Amino acid sequence: MSAPTRLVRSMLYVPASRPEMIAKAAQSDADAVCLDLEDAVAPDQKAASRAHAVTALTTLDFGSRTVLLRINGLDTPWAYRDIVEVVEPAGRAIDCLMLPKTRGPDDVRFVATFLDQVEAHAALPRRIGIEAQIETASGFVAIREIATATDRLESLIFGSGDYAASMRMPLASIGEPDEHDALYPGHRWHAVMHGIVAAARAAGLLAIDGPYADFTDDSGLERACRVARGLGYDGKQCIHPRQIAIVNRVFSPTEAEVAWARRVHAALEDATAAGRGAVAIDGKMIDAANYRMIEETLRRAEAIASRSGRTR
Ligand code: COA
Ligand code: MG
What we know:
Shape: globular
Bound molecules: coenzyme A, magnesium ion
């Protein structure tokens, strides 16, 4: 698969209707910034927000942050104009389009084909990627087909609010546990969250978790990040700048994890040189499977180290 291996621990949403907020997002510590034309924008503000998005994309410096534009769903009257009116004049500044409420592979292929034409017409120098939100029942049952629909796809993103609505699951607040989680003997989002990571990994994509709505609840956010990280997610969306530091921290390997990864790496190099596959470290068996486990830790640590040299 050709998807780039971006470092996306945190992805900050910013409503495209709020130019002053977009300017702050462009300077934030988020690895990625997503200008939203969908649910954060009221229907009568859609057209004006496209113009704000174009101004922001063509005048602001987003540095090395990944820049996304979330268009409206393909079941609305707005999506095609979002692409025409923003990507045509400002596509050079967009890394990926985010497609909400992705219903199946045809939705992704429609956007990919549409982009073929807009990119050719506007003579854009590079291809724009697609990130598909999995947040409906139909998206969940079609995850595998969605994940392989086009080589423009870079990420699958979970959205718990819309998913709950689509599944008719009661949910008090987006991303937060409520009394139903206390009753259910498991993790209510396990099937879809695990399915997204498996489909993303099988197709060589990133897996990003959806946001946590209560932006004053740091410990709840941290817990949600840890659950997502434990399931294999690469990062998590944010809706407020104060969430970024927590998300970046939880999705970065700790010093202890990096030190362990280096020890395992060195021990297995020595073992291989001595003709052995398995060795013991601190009373634990280590073999080639551990090598594969620590590879991602070392890759991420290296990506974070090279990112810290970026200009802001
Ligand atoms: N991006 C950039 N800056 C943001 C921001 C965001 N997503 N959310 C808040 N800020 C800024 C505010 O402009 C404010 O800046 P200031 O101190 O210079 O005035 C500062 O952070 C503190 O904001 P605060 O007063 O705590 O929040 P608010 O009441 O202004 O906004 C929300 C709260 C939830 C409306 C706002 O965070 C928001 O719109 N988030 C994104 C929503 C979204 O895109 N949803 C779609 C995906 S689920
Ligand atoms: Mg949604």
